[in-house]
Known about the structure:
5 helices, STM4215-like, elongated, about 20% helix, three-stranded antiparallel β-sheet, single chain, Pvc16_N, about 25% strand, five-stranded mixed β-sheet, DUF4255 domain-containing protein, alpha+beta
Amino acid sequence: MIHEVDEGLRRLLGESGLEASGVEVVFDAPTRDWAARRSAPTVCVFLYDIREDVGRRGSGAGEVYDADGQLVARRTPPRWYELTYLVTAWASRPQDEHRLLSQVLACLTATDTLPARLLTGTLAELGLTVTLDTAGAGADTPSAADVWSALGGELKASLGVRVRAPLAGAVTAVAPPVTEGLVVRATPRREGGEADPGRRLRYRETPDPGPQGFAAPRDRGPTPARRRTRGDRHP
């Protein structure tokens, strides 16, 4: 799921014109060594915190159907996670970095969700909403200063982006549907020691294919009237 969120963010930023203007979008950790090797304008989207949203944890199981409408599996409810990114712009001059960061901010704040057309893999299959929270307050996540300190770099202007996305539940296959009727044998063997082939019950909605298939029910005639007992009441 995490790599699918990365791809959704990359596509979203790409639609803003960053890639068309030669700006590279990467997901590397912006360490001091990485910054020294950078040579082109870059927008870095660094994932640094992952936490489950336990308030959205569900129970039970959903059903999975194939193209013919047959039940093929059951899936446990998805579990929701908050992915927090540190977004920075890198260029030769601070003015260019601020311009890039402003373009990224305008792109991310223009939508509260990742559009469905940008989702891939399990995110696309689940069809659930993936939300975005850009530059919002995150009291439960590490501060930007702590992140830069852990990376060993100098404090830099950045955007905090929080994505809430579902992780698909476990899938358990179910038994295939019943396609044949039950074989019923009245006696274990015929006279002479031959095994009784039995009579195969058929489903009412299934036409009789012949003696080798489902056996048609015998015509037993009209249903006899029920014998009156002492417990019956007379009108």
